[in-house]
Amino acid sequence: MSPLLDVRGLVQRYATAKPLFGKANDIRAVDGIDLTLHEGEILGIVGESGSGKSTLGRMLLGLERPWQGEVRYRGQPMPAPGSADWRKLRADMQLVYQDPLAALDRRMTISRQISEPLEIHGLAKGEDARDRVAALMARVGLRADQADRYPHELSGGQRQRVVIARALASRPRFLVCDEPVSALDVSIQAQVVNLLRELQERERLTMVFISHDLKVVRNICDRVAVMYLGRVVEIASSDRIFSDPRHPYTRALVSSVPKPGQGLDGRIILKGEPPNPASRPSGCAFHPRCRHSDAGCAATRPELAEHDGRLAACLKLGHARPVAA
Amino acid sequence: MSFVSIRDLTVAFDGVPVLHGIDLDIDRGEAIGLVGESGCGKSVTWLAALGLLPGKARVQGSVRLDGQELIGAPRTTLEGVRGARIAMIFQDPSSSLNPVQRVGRQIGEGLRLHRGLRGAQARTEVLRLMDMVGIPDAKRRIDLYPHEFSGGQCQRIMIAMALAGQPDLLIADEPTTALDATIQAQILDLLAGLRRQTGMAMVFISHDLGAVSAVCDRAAVMYAGRIVEANDIDSLFAAPAHPYTHGLFRAIPDLEAGRARLRPIEGTVPDPRALPAGCAFAPRCDAASSLCNSYAPDLKDQRSGGAVACFHPVQSSLRHMTQQEVPA
User: How confident is the model at residue A323 (pLDDT cuts 50, 70, 90)?
Assistant: First the structure.
């Protein structure tokens, strides 16, 4: 089966503004990523802020051109942003944003916002568009009487449903959800997570689910890629990542999730701050915060390699599985 | 008598009641979690207690701190309480810090106001506080601006500012929500450590039940402006009695539970302008009866410990059943 999306050697580089003295700094937000995404799959991307999750998501959608490397969608290279081919692809792939209030136009009723993609892509007009909007609203669990409301009149969960309804309007096959439930309350979050899962099951939508909420990722994703400073440090099935994480960073991340009734015991508390992409450590980018690191880690950059049915990038993988977890 | 005692606290905005009579006691040194969804009144409770709500808010009831009434107290009294006895930290540190003032000066402001420290003395204390909240290399960084710190460090600076007045009670309003997972773990650790060190009481407002259970002794669950259940952490998590609490626990994905379908609470939080006549949770509740639709249950102490506001609390036998149910 050919993959829906095939990513090779993806690098994104941003230059910071040139300071008064010295030269402009190079930031590699994404630093060499290979990925394949199969039709109907939900791939989770986890990692801390600055790890390049969102940049990767934008490149997967072709919203940003990679500095190096290539994204192939259905076997074809991604067309240049703004080109006619690229515009046609927009209906096929959509982005669900993190902050629904910022993603919505506050002076437009929600029914107009949902029907906008229909007009832009010439998919439906007039009565037909109205019916489609009503169907979309019902599909994401919005009430018909909310059609003439403005975003500020809705709750956060309802706004996120509007964002999802709008993303679904053009019948996309591929969704990138960038922290779609982070701003939502627990009971509503579960509704939206279930909605996304239903969409995947019923319509075989393919999704990339970017989130820092590991519990949600565990629930919704088939596979999970863990990112650190622009690189994938571990990628495996969701079951493997969460039941038996191997990379020291993944292990810290998984252990940092507070569990009801467990208190603060048994958690790996990482020292230091999330790393700054503008001053990347040498060798393995994680080594300054890693308790297993040694001189070798500071010198050599580990590549992804197969370990027990997953790919992980760590030089110390033998040591990364100590008895005292 | 408890250290902080809230009795029948109500708040209304433009005639719309959003807080419907909160009763809550906090002992010295105790850590209590306030859990609930946005708009349920977790934060408003404390903003009202500290007189921080805008003028259009109508606040009634009583909040006593060591016997001293805060509701309707003159400004000078409140200013002696805010920061000095009760300090508050907020969710988004970057919007709570002044972007054009050096962090050392912002921490020092509390020292000057509440402890009369100035000059070199204040600077030494600022350094000590920055050290205490785990900002490395404080000496070099005391004169930096907030944007030169990461999100986690800004939250540490906020905590240092809150500690400057040596408060007896720290209100932490979603202090870890905006932070990355590994940094969240650091901040929870820091808060738990600071409480041990200083003996201050803490109110931890959060929708993250895991985080609440990690740092609190007791928790109160709020829904639509009321406390619907309160209990010590272990009992609350082992045997939630209110259908809302029960539903909330079921709605959280579990790292260990694999990919079982989540069980959301259907419906949404009611609009405060159009609350149901009876129990506010009744429209979303499976156990609701006609009684629930006409009368709002009071928060009543239970024989088994804790307090619940429900006519049909979840039976423990039923709870076991639902836990063993095959996920749909």
Answer: very low
Question: Per residue in A294-320, pLDDT tens?
Answer: 999 999 999 999 988 899 999 988 644
Point out which residues pair with A210 in neighbouring strands. A45, A178
Residue B91's CB is within 10 A of a number of other CB atoms, namely 19
Cβ neighbours around A308 below 10 Å, total? 11
Closest by CA to B245, choosing from B328, B325, B322, is B322
The predicted-structure confidence for B279-303, as pLDDT tens digits, reads as follows: 999 999 999 999 999 999 999 998 8
Contact (CB<8Å) B181/A214: yes
8 Å CB contact of B185 and A263: no
CA nearest neighbour of B178 among B96, B108, B85: B96
| Strands ordered across the beta sheet of B226-232 | B86-89, B169-173, B201-206, B31-35, B218-223, B226-232, B307-308, B300-301
Q: What is the rounded distance in angstroms from the CA atom of residue A303 to the CA atom of residue A313?
A: 5
Rounded to whole angstroms, the Cα distance separating A21 from B257 reads: 55
List the domains of chain B with CATH numbers.
4-216 (3.40.50.300), 240-320 (no CATH)
Q: In chain A, pLDDT over 70 holds for what percent of residues?
A: 94
Which of A80, A321, A47, A92 is CA-nearest to residue A209?
A47
Q: In what order do the strands lie in the sheet with A76-77?
A: A26-37, A5-15, A68-73, A76-77
Pairing relation of β-strands A174-178 and A206-210?
parallel
Residues of chain A numbered 22-61 and touching chain B (CB < 8 Å): 48-49
- How far is residue B233's CA from residue B140's CA, in Å, rounded to a whole number? 41
Residue A255's identity, in one-letter code, is: S
Query: Which range of residues forms the domain containing residue A166?
Result: 5-18+25-322
Q: What is the mean pLDDT of residues A194-217?
A: 89
- Cα gap B61→B56, rounded to integer Å: 16
User: In this complex, do A219 and B251 lie within 8 Å of one another by their Cβ atoms?
Assistant: no
pLDDT band at A222 (very low <50, low <70, confident <90, very high): very high
Name beta bridge partners: A263.
none
Preferred mutation among A160, A187, A221 to probe B, highest tally of B CBs within 10 A: A187
- Whether residue A239 lies within 8 A of chain B, CB to CB, comes out as yes
* CA nearest to A42, candidates A166, A232, A201, A233: A201
| Contact list, B183 vs chain A (CB under 8 Å) | 48, 273-274
Beta-carbon separation of A263 and B238 below 8 A: no
The domain tally of chain A equals 1
Measured CA to CA, the distance from residue A175 to residue A172 in angstroms comes to: 7
The pTM (predicted TM-score) of the whole model is 0.84
Q: Is B37 left (phi over 0), alpha (psi -120 to 50) or beta?
A: beta
Q: pLDDT value at position B179?
A: 79
- Site from A160, A186, A229 to mutate, B interface, most B CB atoms within 10 angstroms: A186
pLDDT at A278: 79
Can you give the pLDDT at residue A33?
Answer: 93
E strand spans, chain B: 4-13, 16-26, 31-35, 57-65, 68-69, 86-89, 169-173, 201-206, 218-223, 226-232, 300-301, 307-308
Q: What is the CATH number of the domain that holds A174?
A: 3.40.50.300
Q: What span, in angstroms and rounded, lies between the C-alpha atoms of A260 and B208? A: 9
